[in-house]
Amino acid sequence: MEAHRLRNLRSPGELRARLEREGTPRTTLSFYRYVRLNTVEELRHALYQAWEALGVLGRIYIAPEGINAQVSVPTANLGAFRQDLDGRDAFRAVPWKIAVEDDGKSFLKLMIKARKKIVADGLDDDAFDVTNVGQHLDAATFNRKLEEGALVIDMRNNYECAIGHFEGAYLPKADTFRGAIEEVVEMLGKVNGEDVDTNPQPETGQPATDSTLHHPEILLYCTGGIRCEKASAYLKHHGYNKVNQLHGGIIDYARQLKAMGLKSKYLGQNFVFDERLSERITDDVVGTCMQCGAPCDRIGNCHEATCNMLLVQCEACAAKYADCCSPSCREIHLLPMEVQRVWRKGRSTRSTKTKAINDPEGLRKRIREEEELLALRGTLHPELTSINQKEEASA
């Protein structure tokens, strides 16, 4: 089959309608594996053909270093999908993590992309031993070490931990993996009273110094475990030898809790990178609405198309601002679609630069100022006057 045909050509509306018509029970799952892959482009095309035939939807990244996949599979085809994976040496017996909550609508299309890395971590893999990872812990051991006072660190981005996290975890403020891991190294250096160098020389193989021997025991966690692979190796490269990571991440932690009858040390929701955006682990609400400050863990994207920023927003504010982040975005979102299209022409989407709002106080200040201007002028977008005049003239 021609490579250019091995991709989705339907609009989001068509895809949603197709999924509704399908009416087939689906299972959302994720998996990853660091493994050396050759001829990545050819493999990408082969996987697309095979998995499209099985009705697989989802987002899969493959690179010379391995595979990272989040997929929705017709439940009736799970056996065939497992057989396809096991029939490929690189993916044989790769562990699955089944979604905690699943409405069958986690993905609308099949997307398989060949990339340089399976996680955009921003790290130079040649600068440290990426195979020297931390010890993998099951849920029971992770809970025990947490209770014993180990330092728990969230290796996700700031907007992910805004709706859920482990008790007492250190939550990085960065919105990229590279920023988060460097922030963690700096924090650990301060904890130990050390001068911090986030770009040290390669390890010399010399015995640990007195300071490294007294480093705290570290517990890392992330969504499915993949980011902790790089993070634990990076921390060990910096001399932190008591590094552990939650096996299978938050997703598998939830499964293990049910299987072993354990109490969850994770509170709230788990952010996921699909149409669902989140899945509930416990009934605890650890977040706050970014617009009014009320307790809330409802997360979504601003509905103004050129904004699309993620934010935590309560039901009351969602109604008040029409599912938008601000009065400015609300004004555009409520316009007739033809006027919106004219206004959007040539404008870039804000969330291509920053995925989520990370300054709630700044957002609240902006909302107050915009509401005052709107009351004074009647609009926050004076340019709409000429656009509306042109639309009326052409009608």
Can you give me a brief rundown of this structure?
The protein is of the alpha/beta class and 395 residues long.
How would you describe this structure in keywords?
single chain, 395 residues, alpha/beta, Alpha-Beta Plaits, Oxidized Rhodanese, domain 1, four-stranded parallel β-sheet, 14 helices, globular
Ordered list of secondary-structure elements with their pairings:
Blueprint (H helix, E strand, L loop, with lengths): L11 H11 L3 E9 L5 H14 L3 E7 L2 E9 L3 H9 L10 E2 L11 E5 L20 E3 L1 H9 L3 E4 L3 H4 L2 E3 L10 H15 L18 H4 L4 E4 L4 H12 L5 E4 L2 H12 L5 E6 L6 E3 L18 E3 L8 E3 L2 H6 L6 H7 L3 H8 L15 H18 L6 H11 L1
Parallel strand pairs: 2-5, 6-10, 7-9, 9-10
Antiparallel strand pairs: 1-3, 1-4, 2-3, 8-11, 11-12, 13-14
Please outline the major beta sheet. 5 strands, mixed
**Residues in helices, as a percent range:** 25-40%
Shape: globular
Using the CA coordinates, give the radius of gyration.
Answer: 23 Å
Quickly count the helices: 14
CATH architecture call of the largest domain: 3-Layer(aba) Sandwich
User: How do the SSEs run, as a string of H and E?
Assistant: HEHEEHEEEHEHEHHEHEHEEEEHHHHH
Tell me the domain tally. Answer: 3
Distance, first to last CA: 46 Å
Reading off the top of the CATH hierarchy, the class of the largest domain is best stated as Alpha Beta
Residues in β-strands, percent: 15-25%
Mean pLDDT: 90
**CATH topology of the largest domain, which one?**
Oxidized Rhodanese, domain 1
> Spans with pLDDT under 50 lasting ≥5 residues?
196-213
CATH superfamily of the largest domain: Rhodanese-like domain
**Largest sheet strand order:** 4-1-3-2-5
Care to count the β-strands? 14
